């Protein structure tokens, strides 16, 4: 039985914890914060396109702080599904150290953005760091309720930060394969019974996969937040031509300059622009966080690729303006919190 610590039991993390335990190969210790007491007492209520209605479900163990995670048995995987915000990452790393056993533990980062792995790889060079991209429509609707409307599609790949002894590439790849196998075991009912399309896939090049997702996140996610509109509303508006399409093509130009042109082709751009109907009520994560008064994943979704653009000499007038607007929004959110 694999021992898993999961940090960030929101919309994505709660589904991940459920899938891992459903595999019958994992015991999950979930770190909760503000909702610890209500989940401890009543569990989660989940309405899921993949798994149906689940009432009062609890992971193997819930704890209020990472510092209270038991260390009597080493962890095989520490799964982090929190928002990727630089200050939060810096604060998290010291608390992870007591939970990591070299030769046993792997970190799994299921988070948005570009270059999210570097801080963890620098802090823990002796363990595999697995990078994950989740394409899932899942959100919390109350402190103990999760609404999951789009199939769970997860890409996992090793972040090759160390290729020599004692951490060869084969060790890092094997850790990723194990996690993918276990996660798919938890999705087996979703695929065979619900036929939802849920799957966990081993990504050969996770950085390339991140650039592809940035086409969507850097355009839809950010523009919906600036305009406070759903995906369908943006697609139906004049902003489709003046903001959305130019922003996506600017992101494609950055990805191409960075060496990932085969991943961010015009065909991919056209698919992402046309795949979603203009009636879609979907509200991306950045908009949801804004409406809840929570900090935005601005730097990893937009700041990091724009720094690549500056280094490569790529002009990005639309993305630059979106970034500056969201920096002001972020300033306001943080000011309200403090």
Automatic annotation (TrEMBL):
EC numbers for this chain: 1.1.1.169
Residue ranges of the TM segments: none
Keyword field contains Isomerase: no
Catalytic activity: (R)-pantoate + NADP(+) = 2-dehydropantoate + NADPH + H(+)
Residues covered by the Ketopantoate reductase C-terminal domain: 205-330
Task performed by this protein: Catalyzes the NADPH-dependent reduction of ketopantoate into pantoic acid.
Listed name of the protein: 2-dehydropantoate 2-reductase
Species in which this protein is naturally found: Exophiala oligosperma
